[in-house]
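Re: that chain you flagged

S.,

Sorry for the slow reply, it's been a week of failed gels. I finally had a moment to sit down with the sequence you sent. For the record, here it is as I used it:
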Amino acid sequence: MSATVLSRHARHTLWPWAKRGLVWGFFALIAWLLVRQARTIDWDEVLDAIVALPASTLLAAGVLVACSFALYSTYDLLGRHVTRHRLGTGTVMGVTFISYAFNLNLGSLVGGVAFRYRLYSRLGLGNQVITRVLGFSMLTNWLGYLVVAGAAFCFWPLALPPTWKIGNEGLRVLGAVLMCAALAYVVLCASASGRTWRVRGHSFSTPSLSMAMLQLAMSCANWSLIGGVIWFLLQGRVDYVHVLAVLLVAAVAGVITHVPAGLGVLEAVFVALLGHEVPEAQLLGALLAYRGLYYLLPLVVATLGYLFTEARARRLRTRTAR
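Prediction finished late last night. Pasting the structure tokens below so you have them in one place:
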């Protein structure tokens, strides 16, 4: 074996390990920063802030959480309309709910992607159909983000810390760019409805204008509901539009860092941007209550639903085998 071949073999062997080491090193750094920051927090005050939340506030936030999950669970129904598969409405919404709950807590690859493929494939859908449903659902979610974030950044810009190196004008420009991107999608759907595009062996058809508008309406409403959950838990101490804008910044930060559930990222962004308006203990108390209501409680329900679905699929396979 020549030296060149040995060198290539060494690179192919070492690179996966080096890449894995870099990923784990990044997560270790994040964990260290979180622990370091956590030591500076008076957790007794945070616990007191959570306990002090009125029952009516928690109930109102819980209702908005239920509305948000119910609305998000209909995203895959749009994919059903596009792909024409025949799964029932309740089944599709159940799969979407389970995937969304695991997506929030474990990340998009595990929750949003892996769970959808596993559950839908067990229900008889092919990989190509699942890919189209998944892609359309993700597109719906981020289209609403473009509009809501664009409007919030453009018309109600935040006072960002000096270290962020972007002022109000920069935020307004970013907001305008986001809204233009959403508008471009609407124009595409209006002018090229039904046109088929091929990307890496997958074919995609441009939806109709009415479908695009429905996507935008559903997703904008969902992002607004999520912002409402945190606003209720903060008991109106900060204007709703500012709470929503900070949430949207935190959502992108969580995606960029790839930290499961955005653990620590959400809190860090809120403290950085709203810490001057709300005492840190009360802010963290509201955010931890939000995590309990929007992340952990649905995860418990989704886990039970997933176990029930697996048991049902196992029984069906047993009957078929007989």
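What I noticed first: The mean pLDDT is 82.

Talk soon,
D.
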